[in-house]
Amino acid sequence: MQELSHFIDGARVAGQSGRFADVYNPATGEVQARVPLASAAELAAAVAGARAAQPGWAATNPQRRARVLMEFVRLLNRDMDKLAEALSREHGKTLPDARGDVQRGLEVVEFCIGAPHLLKGEYTDGAGPGIDIYSMRQPLGVVAGITPFNFPAMIPMWKFAPAIACGNAFILKPSERDPSVPLMLAELMAEAGLPDGILQVVNGDKAAVDAILDHPEIMAIGFVGSTPIAQYIYAKGCAAGKRVQCFGGAKNHMIIMPDADMDQAADALVGAGYGAAGERCMAISVAVPVGEKTADALVEKLIPRIEKLKVGPYTAGDDVDYGPLVTGAARDRVLGLIGSGVAQGAELVVDGRDFRLQGYEDGFFVGPSLFDRVTPEMDIYRQEIFGPVLSQVRAASYDEALGLAMDHEYGNGTAIFTRDGDTARDFASRINIGMVGINVPIPVPLAYHTFGGWKKSGFGDLNQHGPDAFRFYTRTKTVTARWPSGLKEGGEFHFKAMD
Predict the structure, then answer these.
(1) Among 45, 119, 148, 329, which residue has the least CB neighbours within 10 Å?
(2) At CA 404, angle to CA 262 and CA 458, rounded to 5?
(3) Which of the residues 112, 166, 246, 281 is marked catalytic?
(4) Are residues 197 and 86 in the same domain?
(5) What pTM was computed for the model?
(6) 112 is catalytic
């Protein structure tokens, strides 16, 4: 069995704690590797290496730092298939989906190549007699990222690329469920010319997370995961005086107006609801058709599309629609929530609980499920399922549909399908959710905009990637300089007003 490692000071390093976690092949249910779980001492050693390396990296001009990222992009393109295969093997998503995972991270790296422009400060000439004022964006020092299993390539790059472009050193604690790709990314960064110690990958569980939170030399933390853990990290990190941004759970609604193209809406719901087995924080898990006629028409369109979905391992070819869930525990949780929906009175129109795949009976597969006549008090509506389950909640009016999305505790993403521009503009203006799609089911912004949810989907005042990332990973220093002409005569004992 393969034994994985950490990546410290430019090399793979064996774990020293004696604790390990199993890494599964989700398609077969077999343990394929062991990953070491770091102790607080191992985390501290990684921070020490990062702290020693960071001043030299910060002193490297932004253009030279950007050149490392340029080379990293080339290497990512070179190794795209290798990275995708490793990602699919541990996560279970299809190869096209895995390539997309890497690609969306790569696009953020490309944006970060613009660091020389993004790090420019401001300057005021002649603010007073012989006085100039200017600001500088400077790195924080050593920062950390705690990233989830569902995007093991994309989200680590969303975190470490801007942080490193800004001149920081970065401690990455990836998910212990699929750790191989983050280790491979660190090796590619080293191959691209990143100095040793600037990107450290420390595998671990809660002990490593708490060590990050407690370490006084880690100045900022970025997290993506569930809302309870996001709240924990945000509260503890802020209490320790760190800069913290945390992104949590989601329950994304898609409103379908009576004038929408039903075929387009149904296709969008199937892709957004069941892609990656629903293990996306931007997945659409709630369809809200407006009017009984719209709801009946939508269900009629959805059923044959859902029943045709091909579920299987990534090795079965690129025509597989989605693969297994990441662990047996994840599968069991999804099955339990489907059962609760039935028990609480929802109509299970398509039942995926009995899905079995010959030769993969021990894999973590769940067939696609569709609920109709779901109501807001049901567990399947209130909780993030994170599985291949779509719930339809019928709304009598546009305002009722809008209220459902606005009243939910999560506010990550939402969408509306309509042909009416006035309705779309009203929806985008009024909705209290961070990312909005208009006839776009998964409104993930491109790399040069920012990504972030509202309400219990996001904690902190700055978003991921885009310009906000450069604000998060730097602090502003403002300098007031005076260069008087002629010889200075005597001392001044008061602050001269600026004429």
Answers:
(1) 329
(2) 105
(3) 281
(4) yes
(5) 0.94
(6) no
